[in-house]
Amino acid sequence: MDTVVAVQPTPAFWASVREAVRGSHRDYTVGSIQRAIFLLAIPMVLEMCMESLFAIVDVFWAARLGADSVATVGLTESMLMLVFSVSMGLGLSATAMVARRIGEKDPEGAAVAAVQSIALGLVIGLAMGVPCLFLAPKLLQLMGASPQILAVGSSYARIALGGCFVVTLLFLNNAMFRGAGDAAIAMRVLWLSNTINLALDPCLIFGLGPFPRLGVTGAAAATITGRGIGVLYQFYRLFKGGKHIRVLVRQLRLNLDVMLRLLKISLTGISQLAIPHVAWIGLVRIVSTFGSAAIAGYTIGIRIVIFVILPSWGLSGAAATLVGQNLGAKQPDRAEKSVWITGFYNMIFLGGVGVFLIFFAGPVIRLFTQDPAVVPLGVSCLRILSFGNVAYAYGMVMLQAFNGAGDTRTPTVINFFGFWLLEIPLAYVLAITLDFRSNGVYLAILISEAAIAAASVVLFRRGRWKAQQV
User: Fold this and answer.
1) Fewer Cβ close by (within 10 Å): the C or N end of the chain?
2) pLDDT tens for residues 106-134?
3) Cα dihedral value 339, 341, 346, 351, nearest 10
4) What span, in angstroms and rounded, lies between the C-alpha atoms of 469 and 466?
């Protein structure tokens, strides 16, 4: 007997926005794909906008303290990228497993996966953070920091790197909420964290009111405080219950089978993200040979690129959730269609942003610094990288689609060839051997990202990810 499905009227645009921001309790394995993308992407994009503010606000205020302070932020952040890669790698496995259980209509299994993810993340976060608390100045020195940068930035690096377990939990918990379809909660977490960071940054950097003047160290203290309060809010919502996932007291126990499966997926996920982040460290090391002004220009330019690209990661996250849930519901064709539609939307967004930044790179860079030595270097960085926005748009959606299916191996292989075998050697040749200096690094990034995007599209079309078991 055929099933008769009632056709529902399409809600008004602003009604849909309100539903997305409040949090939708919809089943994303049925109905309009475009609407599912919209309801998931709006809070994810807003969440990523908030995450990108962490990257941009510290540089904005640090630029008022001089090039050495900006260089401190840039060198530390390049190392913190390794922490991000571990945290996001754990998040990939949590998103895939939670999304698959939700698609299978198994909220109990989703909650069990959440508990194991948190336990794993806490142990790994502390294992990374405690040594960094003591070794941060040495790590800065290894990155090529001058004595002036070490004097200014050692305390900043200790706080930022030593408190990285907070970053791990923040990324991991939000990944679980997104996988469950509770993207609005993840968005609110970043709103809360960023509001605190925005308020505390100038107070702690410049000593406003009753706050001590900590210089660039104040930026790290403000960020870790905002993120820490965000993690507490995450736990409150996780145990209170969101639209799709809730952890009960009786579920607070270790499940070695689930944890080992998470760890297996996480290892390739961590490798996948560690590869570009290690490459980033290599790029910063190459740029550091050209002095503090070059590092500052690179840092400001890259932070702006991150600021405009992170919202696109929100769209990509919507694709990952839809892939995971639709594979769980045994609908691989719907999963594939969701990815192509999301990629097109992402291309329109990032392409438009890229055109804007190509023409207005100068005024945008001058919002952060007027230093005549830094401005032209930052403009070159921003302008060259913006030519690759269309490639970035499709590449990130395809890679996240693999991750949403639980296939973290394919993106790992793509990243290995794209970043380690292409980007780093090419950057060295262009910057050092051919004497393009920092522009050579930016050209290498552009070329490697385009190659990664092309490889991702080809492998996605083959469809092997549809058979992935989680």
Assistant:
1) N
2) 888 888 888 999 999 899 999 998 998 88
3) 130
4) 9
